[in-house]
Fold:
Amino acid sequence: MVVTDAVTHAPIANASVEANPGAAQQTSDAQGIATFDSLPSNTYDVAVTRPGYKPQSKSVFIEPALTASLGFALDPIGTIAGTVKDSSTQQPIAGVLVEVLGTQLSATTAANGTYTIGQVPIGTYDVKASKAGYQTQTLGQKAVT
Structure:
């Protein structure tokens, strides 16, 4: 199996590749290749994980001689973070709901007005901040690794 970055198409080393049934686990090498030589030919549920990427799984037929033709392209993920302040006083605002539009991801600001939203696919998003007593604002923010 070959594990690559869905954006850059570069191989991903050190990805965990697990095949079930059998709980066989391999780690991808520098070329993104993970090989299951000892598994009997069968259909397996294969899960691929690597920090900084969205996990991926699919059901695939594995044969010991068939390694490089099965591919997984993982989507890189990052975070969106910031601080929400009162526009008049420049003081941080706690308890603001911050939502990444187009996803189900959100966070609430801490006492110092900061927020961090993880597991966001790399890209630029509209981020909405809202709290009773304040005008709702939407700004573009980029998810970074």
About this structure: The first strand starts at residue 2 and ends at 5. The mean pLDDT is 91. Residues 23 and 67 are 17 Å apart (CA to CA). The chain has no helices and twelve strands.
